[in-house]
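Technical note accompanying the year-one report. For the benefit of new consortium partners, we illustrate the data format agreed upon in the data management plan: each record pairs a sequence with a structure-token string. No post-processing was applied to the example shown here.
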Amino acid sequence: MRWIGFLSLVALSECLVIVPLTKIKSMRESLRERDLLRDYLQRHPYSQAYKLLRQPRVTVQSMRNYLDLYYVGTISIGTPPQKFRVVFDTGSADLWVPSIYCSSPACVTHRIFKPLRSSTFQDTNRPIKLVYGSGSMTGLLGYDDVRIRNLVCKSQAFGLSTTESGIALEFAAFDGILGLAYPSLAFNDTTPVFDSLWKQGLLPDNLFAFYLSSNKRNGSVVMFGGVDHSYYRGELQWVPVSEQGFWQVTVDSISMNGTVVACPGGCQAIVDTGTSLLIGPPDPVLNILKSINAQNTSTGEYIVSCDDVQSLPDIVFTMNNVTYPVPASAYIRRGKTDICYSNLYKDTLTSFNHWVLGDVFLRLYFTVFDRANNRIGLAPVVA
């Protein structure tokens, strides 16, 4: 989560009768949009979907979409449990929350962990520090029980913030961050939450998956240890992880209108649920922005004519010989004053030189993070 907060013919009789069909949302889709699906399934325990939800040890955690900036779910830490809103972030590997030791403005406006109120807390006095693209934290390392719905991860390492800097953290709708990247990115000699869940035998399969809603607050989920196939269309297509730190993959090329506009000889990308935008190296991003006649503003943002959005081409990412189109309706957003902004961001703050496929991309594709086989599965989401 380096950049969090940035901005799916009827023929009758002897004569052929063709009846035009209008797509009607299924009851399941309608209930999910209103966040009523689970309640309905619990009242109808013999439905197939409820059987899926009742599979032993498969955990589905709901998340709330905050203005398409980030997705937040609730966990708890300690005994008795203390609740926190966290971003489930595949771009980092550590769990941290504000603590009673912190006096930064970001801590004052968020829930704080109180060690003395937990009978299972273990202190270490070990200092930690994390730096993100939109803020940073320092703190102390501790251990306690972490709960994600029905999962209880015993003696999990986590950070207790003592300082939090950055406007993004101060005004965030989340308290902390729960990292889901590989252990090599975690605090030294600690085990990330997902690895602990697997090692403690709490998951049937060594994977987790995301469905991110678009333009609505409810309906988004992260699922641990299993996959709900009703969230996507067709078959999952698999992309090997190219380096085990971030969830990093190889992009074969990036094209528009059949012409390669970036990454002609292949490049690397990070699949990151904690980043809101599509991010890339400056020159390739600028080439794309110029090709859609985007204009730079005094704030560094790029805008296009809202009248032109429908005619703009898809940005097509090809990975493992499979194409993943990102339409203009995804990479352009309408502002409050009928100005349309680009969701492409050029990385001028680091020398990372990788693309970051953030929520702009992930809202289009149901995503499975398969640690057992070190691969990522992608399939178009159910509309």
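Partners are asked to follow this layout when depositing records. The chain is about 15% helix and 40% strand.
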